């Protein structure tokens, strides 16, 4: 009886572990800003717009690039099926936990296809391209990135297809990382991994100190850190809010509304008029507190939606599309 042995395992590269640790720290700082917004210390929409929105996308991209690099370094000599299945099962289970937890706390915007879901699917897809050279992976990644916006709408609408990123609607979710165009970042990482695999001795080893060792320690435990950090952060902010609750900010609604209006309006109207109307009408209708506490209320409540539509017409807008996670 012939026993099939798995391909040899490459030693871990300290630079990759450190890079993963840096990405985890960056992710924690972004989630901290989200927590501050959730508890009312920042204006609604702060974490999902402007520089923080760019910051969040850069962090997600860095994680996916590292996934691509690690996929090549671990399996370029031959797919190590046992270790791949074990790791993939952990990621898929963690993604399911994130979905269940966010559905319990924020059902209107729960995470049904976030970064972990993307990593699980992209890891499977990436196996099909392991034999491609670096330049082919770069070309394929560029094709995915630039073609995805042009292909929007080629699949039917609805949650069964939203995960592809090719449905006509962008769903409301606290963390939405669809296969397209985000798989392009994994392909870019695989191209980098090919270059590293060809000459691993050229990858510098970071100088040892406490900061580097700490980042590498985090990087080697990335999945556990990902699952644990947000409950810890949100618990700390919740405890602080219990001791020193945020004071009322009379300008919070107006600031968030005008910012969202400028980003999502189709032009031809007056955002100041729209937001002033919405603030007055929502206050009269007793809806302001609900909108400020749960931003998704603006789209889920029929009366609130009617008020927003009325104010949009009064301000001269033909239509105002709501930005992801940002409600006027």
Radius of gyration: 23 Å
First CA to last CA: what distance? 68 Å
Could you estimate the helical fraction of the residues in percent? Answer: 55-70%
How many helices? The count is: 14
Helix and strand composition category: mainly alpha
- Reading the helices and strands in chain order gives HHHHHHHHHHHHHH
Q: Based on Cα principal axes, name the global outline.
A: globular
Q: Which blocks of ≥5 consecutive residues have pLDDT under 50?
A: 319-328
Let me know the number of strands: 0
Biggest sheet overview: none
Q: What percentage of the residues does DSSP assign to strands (E)?
A: under 5%
Q: How would you sum up this structure in a few lines?
A:
The protein is mostly helical. The model is unreliable at 319-328 (pLDDT under 50). The protein contains 14 helices and no strands.
Topology record:
Blueprint: H1 14-38, H2 50-75, H3 81-105, H4 115-127, H5 134-150, H6 159-162, H7 179-198, H8 210-219, H9 222-243, H10 252-264, H11 271-284, H12 288-293, H13 297-300, H14 302-314
Structural notes for this entry:
The protein contains 14 helices and no strands. It has helices at residues 14-38, 50-75, 81-105, 115-127, 134-150, 159-162, 179-198, 210-219, 222-243, 252-264, 271-284, 288-293, 297-300, 302-314. It has 328 residues and is an all-alpha fold. α1 packs antiparallel against α2 (50-75), α4 packs across α7 and α5 packs antiparallel against α7 (179-198). It starts with 13 loop residues before the first helix and ends in a 14-residue tail after the last helix. It is globular, with a radius of gyration of 23 Å.
């Amino acid at each position: 009886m012939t026993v099939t042995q798995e391909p040899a395992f490459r030693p871990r590269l300290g630079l990759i572990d450190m890079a993963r640790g840096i990405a985890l720290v960056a992710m924690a700082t972004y989630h901290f800003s989200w927590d501050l917004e959730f508890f009312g210390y920042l204006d609604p929409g702060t974490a999902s717009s402007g520089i923080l929105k760019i910051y969040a996308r850069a962090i997600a991209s860095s994680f996916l690039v590292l996934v691509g690099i690690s996929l090549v370094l671990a399996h370029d000599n031959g797919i190590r099926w046992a270790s791949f299945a074990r790791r993939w099962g952990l990621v898929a289970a963690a993604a399911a936990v994130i979905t269940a937890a966010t559905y319990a706390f924020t059902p209107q915007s729960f995470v049904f296809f976030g970064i972990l879901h993307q990593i699980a699917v992209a890891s499977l897809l990436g196996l099909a391209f392991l034999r491609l050279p670096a330049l082919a992976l770069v070309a394929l990644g560029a094709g995915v990135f630039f073609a995805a916006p042009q292909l929007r709408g080629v699949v039917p609408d609805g949650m069964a297809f939203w995960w592809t990123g090719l449905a006509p609607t962008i769903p409301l979710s606290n963390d939405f990382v669809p296969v397209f165009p985000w798989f392009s970042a994994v392909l870019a990482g695989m191209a980098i991994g090919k270059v590293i695999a060809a000459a691993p001795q050229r990858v510098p080893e970071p100088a040892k100190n406490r900061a580097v060792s700490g980042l590498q320690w985090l990087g080697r435990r990335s999945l556990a850190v990902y699952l644990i950090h947000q409950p810890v952060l949100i618990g700390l902010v919740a405890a602080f809010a219990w001791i020193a609750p945020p004071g009322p900010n009379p300008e919070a609604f107006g600031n968030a509304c005008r910012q969202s209006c400028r980003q999502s309006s189709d032009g031809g109207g007056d955002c100041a008029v729209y937001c002033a109307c919405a603030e007055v009408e929502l206050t009269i209708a007793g809806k302001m507190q609900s909108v400020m506490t749960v931003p998704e209320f603006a789209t889920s409540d029929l009366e609130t939606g009617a008020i927003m539509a009325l104010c949009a017409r009064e301000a001269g807008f033909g239509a105002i599309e709501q930005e992801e996670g940002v409600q006027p």
